[in-house]
Design a protein that fits this description.
Helices cover 9% and strands 45% of the residues. By secondary structure, the chain is mainly β. The longest helix has 15 residues.
Length: 167
């Protein structure tokens, strides 16, 4: 069906959003100065976000506040008539010696028109580019938790389909 590939791609994007760690500190206990931007292009549709709150700055372990990613508190936007939302506040850890970051769980929902799909993935590993704080995903598979019969039961994302930049 037409909606399935786009919703699958959206799910990948939202997982990338889970790593967001932005700059404005809110009452949630976010660390001042922690900021991240992200971009994901899926099936010709671009999704972007900036400025979500985190409990610390890399390389310290941190948690990202989903309320600062999702609208109305955040600015996650996608083309192609897609809406997305993160259902949890993911925790992630950094291994600077290995140049990686790992998220614990990312639980997300993507919707297009009347079709809604919810997916969950655990232990995504992200590779750092050089000495920067830009990370790109390694391959992973997400499993459908709920949603329309039009949603695939799972989907896989290739390496490099998502990236985030902590600044």
């Amino acid at each position: 069906m037409k909606y399935t590939p786009t919703l699958t791609g959206l799910a990948v994007l939202v997982m990338a959003v889970g790593i967001g760690v932005p700059a404005s500190a809110h009452a949630s206990g976010a660390a001042a100065g922690a900021e991240v931007d992200g971009v994901m292009v899926v099936s010709g549709n671009t999704c972007t976000w900036t400025g979500a709150d985190a409990s610390a700055t890399p390389p310290s372990a941190l948690t990202v506040d989903r309320a600062t990613i999702n609208k109305p508190g955040g600015n996650l936007t996608c083309g192609g008539g897609i809406t997305a939302s993160l259902n949890n506040s993911p925790a992630f850890t950094f291994d600077d010696a290995a140049g990686t970051a790992t998220t614990d769980v990312i639980d997300l929902t993507g919707k297009q028109s009347f079709v809604s799909c919810r997916y969950k993935v655990t232990n995504i590993v992200w590779n750092r580019e050089g000495a920067t704080r830009k990370y790109v995903n390694t391959p992973f598979t997400a499993t459908k938790v709920s949603g329309s019969f039009l949603c695939p039961g799972s989907f896989s994302a290739a390496a490099g389909e998502a990236s985030v930049v902590f600044r």
